[in-house]
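Fig. S4 source data, part A: sequence.
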Amino acid sequence: MAPIRKTTPKGAMNPKLEKAINEQINAEFYSAYLYLSMSSWFDSTGLKGFASWERIQAMEERDHALKFFDYLCSRGGRVVMQAVEAPPSSWKNPQDAFEAQLDHELKVTGMINNLVDLAMAEKDHATVNFLQWFVSEQVEEEENARTTLEQLKMISQEKGVGLLYMLDKEMATRVYTPPTPATN
């Protein structure tokens, strides 16, 4: 068993940030589990397009976790894997699922902002720079959830089963695009 570091070697990861990034890795994997759970639920309701959209969302969240993983390793930190909490497995309807998704993304945004605040307080400029990608990404994540939620609200107001079918077909057109490699 390797000895536990008591001090931070010059250029190595700040211990407070190392702990916080490990927690974020767990949160990103939870996000992937949540969206896989939503994918399964949408699939079981016959909304294959929504299921596909959520599966791609899960893949993106997994990539976010790995981006944090790789960053921590590149800075001399140690990733400590933690148990991932089980997500909910059903929702009342598609609107309820996307309300949950928007709430979750708002929570993740808060977590990313807290990481930025910690990195700034610790004067870890490399980590502040690294986190800017996630700050921008969260704007996109919130917008996607909010836009879909607003569309679902319009459909429910119109009692538009046909519109839901059309939106499901549109959701199926989403294509997975892996993130670009981080530059440190």
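Fig. S4 source data, part B ends here. The first helix runs from residue 15 to 44.
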